[in-house]
Amino acid sequence: MSATTVPSAAALKVPGFWRRALRHRSFVLGGVLTLLLLLAAFVSLVWTPWSPYEMNMPNKLKPPSGAHWLGTDTYGRDVASLLLVGARASILVGVIAVGIGLVVGTALGLLAAARRGWVEEAIMRLTDFSLAFPAILSAIMMTAVFGAGIVNAIIAIGIYNIPTFARITRASANAIWSREYVAAARACGKGSFAITMQHVLPNISAVLIVQITIRFAIAILAEAALSYLGLGTQPPQASWGRMLNEAQTMMFQSPLLAVFPGMAIALAVLGLNLLGDGLRDLLDPRLARAR
Fold it and tell me: How far apart, in whole angstroms, are the C-alpha atoms of residue 63 and residue 37?
């Protein structure tokens, strides 16, 4: 999305928004896939076909059947149950990690746009420095100091999200600060904080909503990668990334063990990306008028 295009949050409230949304194929497909991800996580809280933690070695590597819908893994655990619980872990990591990036990054971006000068320059250089440490590299460093675990993975992914939100917020907020109604508010004696909360933040909320869905997809992918490397979710908790790691030694005996978690990751990321693309099209005033 262009930094000069700042869709208004009011686009969410217009009567025709949901009518246009239901005609937008990317939005609808992304919404369905995202709802399936959330439904899988919710269902795993109250029910799974089998216990995802109970090993049954005589029953290992069974093909899909009526008893085990997606078969069993190398320890005899039900693959369908592991996938359901893995969805819960992915959402947990995504929500907290994106939340960290959203809160801290948005605050820094708003501060940079409001204060300008050396404050803006310092914040932007700090975000440049943070971008030199990707999520996986940060997790490896944190693991070396504090040990492997989902908490360190969440912190690493969250820190990685901060500069992205800071840059997008600052660019979008700068566009709002140049508007006439902001100049009028300043002429009326409103301070920078009041203008930021009453005028700037509401008018960049649509940009942030779109970015949340995109960063959520990246967080799920990063969590899967970290778990695959043994740095994320630890046993006995289920994780799609660790399921892929365990399946790689059984590619010839039971290739479906890698197919199912791989498809789960791909569909979750695809759904969130399509949802983000759809929201971007629907909330961008220029694109919305074209539909």
Answer: 24
What does the alpha-carbon distance between residue 259 and residue 248 come to, in Å, rounded to a whole number?
A: 10
Q: What is the pLDDT of residues 183-234, one digit of tens each?
A: 999 899 889 999 999 999 999 999 999 999 999 999 999 999 999 988 888 8
Q: Do residues 242 and 233 lie in contact, with contact meaning Cβ atoms separated by under 8 Å?
A: yes
Question: What is the band of 3 on the pLDDT scale with cuts at 50, 70, 90?
Answer: very low
Q: What is the mean pLDDT of the chain?
A: 88
195 CB contacts (<8 Å, ≥6 apart)?
A: 114, 177, 182, 185, 186
Report long-range pairs for 249-254 (Cβ below 8 Å, ≥24 apart). Answer: 249/74, 250/61, 250/74, 253/61, 254/61, 254/63, 254/71
Model confidence pLDDT, tens digit, residues 55-77: 989 999 999 999 899 999 999 99
AA letter at 3: A
Sorted by where each starts, the structural domains of the chain and their CATH numbers stand as 15-43+78-290 (1.10.3720.10)
Distance CA 106, CA 281 (A): 22
Contact 282, 27 (CB under 8 A): yes
Q: Dihedral, CA atoms, 165, 266, 95, 26, nearest 10 degrees? A: 70
Confidence label for 285 from pLDDT (cuts 50, 70 and 90)? low
The CA-atom distances, in angstroms, between 200 and each of 52, 118, 162, 168, 187 are 47, 21, 19, 13, 16
